[in-house]
Every structure is written in structure tokens, then in C-alpha cells.
Specification:
Elements (H helix, E strand, L loop, with lengths): L2 E10 L29 E2 L1 H15 L3 H8 L10 E2 L2 E8 L7 E5 H13 L5 H6 L9 E2 L3 E3 L2 E3 L6 H7 L4 E4 L1 H7 L5 E8 L2 E9 L6 E9 L1 H6 L6 H15 L6 E2 L10 E6 L2
Parallel strand pairs: 5-9
Antiparallel strand pairs: 1-12, 1-14, 2-4, 3-12, 4-5, 4-12, 6-9, 7-8, 10-11, 13-14
Length: about 270
């Protein structure tokens, strides 16, 4: 393997809108990015890399660090590989709780498949396999979720530990995609000189949703053999500092649009 591949869980602390540039012809003007296979919300790798780069450009004044990690305008793409962030789970309203954190067997399968494809040795992968190819909803609560009744039939201890959520339900893909057909929508108002000129509607992924992504760092053995890298120790410190800053408990990464109204504030956590 040429890379050290690390899994990061992304929790959006506030609502997030990473726009696709699409509209659904009159009902919602600004739609979120979605996976072309599952139609689940997703953050494309270019959007994710751009957001993380802005974070580091703001907090770290080091051009060499930025160029090495993210690249520059001279056709240097950077040395760290960013992959898209796939949906892990999303909160939905519940009759008995403020919300239940809902997952899909397909989203879990995507995580397991990526871990295995990239040879990420992690106990989590084997624990999650039992939640793949479900024929019924697995839940640790009795409640109604968005008019859908669910019965407690599993403690889901592994998922409670992994997600940090107390009330969880895992749906078969066929049921989960119905929940995701209509994400929350907010009305926005475009102003010119203090006057309303356009009312538009924008889709968003609600706060406390979770995504996961895999970021790949060149192995330091490769660094020492590559003429592009002239200081193995310095590059090692770059990668260590990148990971420490990205997962800081005090600084949040802003992803997507509407930063000035508090959208897209996210916390990264490495899955070890």
C-alpha cells in the first residue's frame, strides 16, 4: 500500500447545505448533493477538499504546508487524497423522543466496503457486517418515526458506541430511501438594497447528521524515495499537524454554503 488510509466521522453541528446546483423544477430551488447510486445526501470530494483547505488557510499561515497537502495553481494537485463523504445517519422526528438517529443497511455496507477495499484493519468492520442486508428495521426503542412505527428488537450497542447516539434505528435501504425523499426545506429571501427581490427555497441536511470520509496520506517510506519530497521528517510533521488540527475539539470546519448564517459547522473525529 502506498498510503495510510484513515476514516473520519463528520458530524454537522448546524444544518448543512452543500449545493448540487440543481433544482426540482419549481418546488425547491437549491438541492443538496446526492449520491448517484443511492440518492442519499453526500459531500463530493472536491467540495470537502475545498472546505478543509479554507479551514487550514484561515488557521495556519504556512504556504509550504498548504501546497504540500492541497496543491497549488501550478498543476500540483497536492499529496493527500480526499474522498467523498457518504451519509452515515440522519436524525428524524419521533413520537417519544426529540429525534431518533436513523441509519441504513446500505450506508453501513458502503462504509464496510470502503474499509475493506482500502485494507483498513479495524474491528469496527466485522461488528458492522451484521447490519447489512436487513429485512426489517433494527431499533433499540419503541416509537413512531415520521409516521412509521418501529419496535425495539436489538440493543445496537456497537452502533450506539460508534455514533455516540442513544436512540437508533437501522432501516433496510428500501425503507430508508423513503425517509430521505423529502429533506427539510427552508425559505430564503434575496435582498437588494434592503428590499426583497426573490423568495427561494433551499434543501438542507439537518444538524446532528453524520457522514464519514476516508483521507489518505502517503506513507513516509514513499516520501523518502520520491524526489518531490525533500524532507521526510518535515512531511511527517505536516501530516501529524493536519490530523491534529482537523480533529480539534475547539475548531469547527465550515462545509458548504451559507457560512454567514451559521450553516455547515462540522466536527471531524478519527475512527480508530
Amino acid at each position: 500500500m502506498l498510503y495510510d488510509n484513515k476514516i473520519y466521522k463528520i458530524q454537522n453541528i448546524t444544518n448543512i447545505h452543500v449545493g448540487s446546483g440543481d433544482t426540482n423544477f419549481g418546488i425547491v430551488d437549491n438541492l443538496v448533493q446526492r449520491d448517484v447510486l443511492t440518492n442519499y445526501p453526500v459531500i463530493h470530494s472536491s467540495s470537502l477538499k475545498g472546505a478543509i483547505r479554507e479551514f487550514f488557510e484561515f488557521y495556519k499561515n504556512d504556504d509550504e504546508f498548504i501546497r504540500h497537502i492541497f496543491g497549488d495553481e501550478d498543476k500540483n494537485p497536492g499529496n493527500v487524497v480526499f474522498t467523498e463523504a457518504n451519509l452515515l445517519g440522519i436524525p428524524f422526528r419521533s413520537r417519544d423522543y426529540p429525534y431518533v438517529f436513523c441509519m441504513s443497511d446500505e450506508s453501513i455496507k458502503t462504509l464496510v466496503d470502503k474499509m475493506e477495499s482500502l485494507n483498513i484493519d479495524n474491528e469496527l468492520s466485522s461488528k458492522l457486517k451484521k447490519y447489512i442486508n436487513l429485512t426489517e428495521v433494527k431499533s433499540n426503542v419503541n416509537t413512531v418515526i415520521e409516521d412509521m412505527e418501529v419496535k425495539k428488537n436489538d440493543e445496537l450497542k456497537d452502533l450506539v458506541e460508534f455514533t455516540g447516539e442513544e436512540n437508533i434505528a437501522v432501516f433496510p435501504h428500501s425503507e430508508f430511501k423513503k425517509l430521505l425523499e423529502d429533506l427539510p426545506v427552508v425559505a430564503r429571501n434575496q435582498l437588494e438594497n434592503g428590499k426583497s427581490v426573490n423568495l427561494f427555497y433551499e434543501e438542507f441536511v439537518p444538524r446532528r447528521s453524520q457522514f464519514f470520509t476516508i483521507i489518505s496520506f502517503p506513507k513516509l517510506e514513499r516520501v523518502s524515495k520520491n524526489k518531490k519530497f525533500n524532507d521526510k521528517e518535515k512531511i511527517g510533521k505536516f501530516y501529524e499537524e493536519f490530523q491534529n488540527m482537523l480533529t480539534s475539539e475547539t475548531d469547527l470546519v465550515q462545509i458548504g454554503a451559507n457560512a454567514t448564517i451559521g450553516y455547515g459547522l462540522c466536527k471531524f473525529k478519527e475512527v480508530k
